[in-house]
Write a structure and sequence with these properties.
By secondary structure, the chain is α+β, with helices and mostly antiparallel strands. The chain has helices spanning 26-29, 60-64, 74-80, 122-125, 137-143; strands at residues 21-25, 37-40, 48-54, 69-73, 95-98, 105-107. The longest helix is centred in the middle third of the chain and has 7 residues, at 74-80.
Length: 146
């Protein structure tokens, strides 16, 4: 079954070109939800930016099913949610959560009052992509495109 993405390839503009690819939840690319949680891992290969984008409430079971994630250009994600653009140069290891009701993100490792206490530790409350649970990022990259 083919996925129906929120944006067509012809609707994309250059908002964040040159960043490479990212692993993205279908909650963003198919359902059109905003990015609620984003983090940057070590890139898997030369084309991978290391960015992982989620709406923020996906279960680990959902994310472990490769049918619910895909590899897209970071620019594609920026076209879906331009609030991410200001954060794309963040270091590997960065974990950001959207501040409710805004286009701003806060570092979940930050002790800032902007970060709700339940999100203080990304390992406890935020699910992450288990890249090892999918065949390979390269296989996902071949399967998905806006």
């Amino acid at each position: 079954m083919s996925k129906r993405y929120v944006l067509a390839k012809g609707d994309l503009v250059d908002l964040a070109p040159g960043y490479g690819t990212a692993v993205v939840s279908d909650q963003i690319t198919v359902s059109g939800r905003s990015v609620g949680y984003m983090y940057r891992d070590e890139p898997d290969d030369d084309g991978d930016s290391g960015w992982r984008f989620l709406s923020g409430d996906e279960s680990q079971e959902y994310l472990d099913d490769e049918r619910h994630v895909g590899v897209f250009e970071v620019n594609d994600v920026a076209n879906l949610d331009d609030a991410i653009i200001d954060y794309l140069d963040a270091d590997v290891g960065t974990h950001l959560v959207r501040i409710d009701g805004s286009d701003d993100f806060a570092d979940v490792d930050d002790d800032s009052d902007d970060v709700p206490a339940e999100y203080a530790s990304p390992d406890d409350d935020w699910e992450e992509f288990d890249v090892d649970a999918v065949d390979s990022v390269a296989d996902l990259r071949d399967d998905d495109s806006l």
